[in-house]
């Protein structure tokens, strides 16, 4: 309904909307009238609701986009960089400011990182009963659990596509977002210019800068690294999981702001490490190592991709991997001492073992995790592990 000033209310307040079992649907809310309250108080009371508010100083209606409002709760629990930004930085040449022209795996992997990031933020998950084959979690159908925008253009565009599309499996979603699907009716779901959009996002965060470079006859934009500490923090997480056998989850994101407590730090670090290998950018941060050590690290991460790219994750770990086994299943597993002895003998010579990682991830799962989010992680790693036959 148009007001006297010609403005219309297009979106309602999420705070006043009735809860939905699957999707957070926003309902229309009444326009907040002016009064003794300040403009800031009016904005707080309306939240992300009405697009109109009254400015007490002028008496005029002010229109705003509720998606521009910052979710302070999520900002304090999510790291500064998303998964796709971390993988992008690992592949970026620091001074030249561009990615390898011969890397045909990075773009496909970045689409998988987008789905992982949405799952870790509680936006999407695997629908219950969606997977027909238990050993192939990537066949599970993606379900939207929270349609609230994140503020990241790539994540929000993917959310809108998932919200508007029919039920689709996780593997098919990666293909659709990558443009690897031959369905002409859904070609509009492809995410375009992902690398350039990630670079622009990092420029806005002050991590990269934009400059023009001449390549033969053409001027191309490049994005050299400005804030080296951001990439160093990602490198340290890689080294913490590959060159050390000890693990301290809270220290993985110690470089974040003081008021930020990142949830699922071990899970996020494992996702970053495994996707960096699948994107063919992990070796960029291992060049200072000897050839023998570098090969051992790559073999260790390949094993992590295999163990975490299935559901349940690391099923041979003590306690049954992730999700945790029931007490009956654990009792049956404890009656196989030969398998336990074999696992102890196969402990890696370097890097945190899959059993230790899944133990830390199990603690995160029991504290704040959601089963369907971890299923998405397993499904994405399963698809990326088969990349050689897909790309």
From TrEMBL:
Which BP terms from GO are recorded?
A: Golgi organization; Golgi to plasma membrane protein transport; Golgi vesicle budding; retrograde vesicle-mediated transport, Golgi to endoplasmic reticulum
Provide the alphabetized UniProt keywords.
Golgi apparatus, Lipid-binding, Membrane
Q: What is its main location?
A: Golgi
Q: Give its localization.
A: Golgi apparatus membrane
**Keyword hit for Membrane:** yes
**MF terms (GO), sorted A to Z:** phosphatidylinositol-4-phosphate binding
What Gene Ontology cellular-component terms does the record carry? cytosol; Golgi cisterna; Golgi membrane; trans-Golgi network
Region of interest called Disordered, as start-end residue ranges on this chain: 1-29, 41-62
Q: Name one Pfam family in it.
A: GPP34
The record's section on InterPro entries has:
GPP34-like, GPP34-like_sf
> Is Zinc included in the keywords of this UniProt record?
no
Q: In what way does this protein cross or attach to the membrane?
A: Peripheral membrane protein
Q: Which domain of life is it from?
A: Eukaryota
Q: Spell out the family assignment given in the record's similarity comment.
A: Belongs to the GOLPH3/VPS74 family.
Full protein name: Vacuolar protein sorting-associated protein 74
């Amino acid at each position: 309904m148009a007001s006297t000033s010609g403005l219309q209310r297009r979106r309602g307040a999420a705070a006043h909307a009735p809860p939905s079992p699957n999707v957070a649907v926003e309902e229309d809310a009444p326009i907040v009238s002016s009064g003794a309250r300040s403009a800031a108080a009016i904005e707080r009371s309306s939240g992300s609701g009405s697009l109109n508010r009254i400015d007490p100083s002028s008496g005029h209606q002010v229109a705003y986009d509720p998606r521009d409002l910052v979710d302070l709760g999520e900002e304090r629990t999510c790291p500064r960089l998303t998964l796709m930004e971390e993988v992008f930085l690992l592949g970026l040449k620091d001074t030249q400011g561009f990615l390898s022209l011969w890397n045909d795996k990075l773009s496909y992997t970045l689409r998988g990182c987008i789905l992982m990031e949405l799952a870790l933020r509680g936006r999407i998950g695997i629908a219950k009963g969606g997977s027909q084959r238990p050993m192939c979690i990537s066949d599970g159908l993606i379900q939207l659990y929270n349609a609230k925008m994140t503020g990241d253009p790539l994540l929000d565009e993917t959310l809108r596509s998932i919200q508007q599309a029919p039920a689709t499996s996780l593997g098919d979603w990666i293909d659709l977002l990558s443009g690897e699907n031959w369905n002409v009716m859904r070609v509009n779901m492809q995410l375009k210019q992902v690398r350039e959009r990630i670079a622009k996002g990092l420029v806005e965060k002050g991590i990269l800068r934009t400059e023009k470079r001449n390549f033969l006859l053409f001027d191309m934009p490049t994005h050299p690294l400005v804030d080296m500490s951001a990439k160093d923090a990602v490198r340290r997480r890689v080294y913490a999981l590959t060159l050390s056998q000890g693990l301290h989850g809270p220290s993985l994101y110690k470089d974040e702001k003081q008021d930020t407590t990142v949830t699922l730090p071990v899970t996020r670090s494992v996702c970053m490490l495994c996707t960096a290998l699948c994107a063919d950018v992990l070796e960029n941060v291992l060049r200072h190592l000897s050839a023998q050590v570098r090969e051992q690290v790559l073999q260790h991460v390949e094993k992590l991709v295999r163990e975490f790219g299935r559901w349940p994750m690391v099923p041979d770990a003590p306690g049954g991997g992730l999700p945790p086994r029931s007490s009956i299943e654990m009792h049956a597993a404890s009656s196989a001492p030969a398998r336990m002895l074999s696992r102890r003998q196969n402990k890696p010579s370097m890097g945190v073992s899959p059993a230790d990682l899944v133990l830390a991830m199990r603690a995160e799962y029991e504290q704040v995790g959601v089963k369907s989010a971890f299923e998405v992680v397993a499904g994405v790693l399963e698809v990326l592990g088969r990349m050689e036959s897909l790309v």
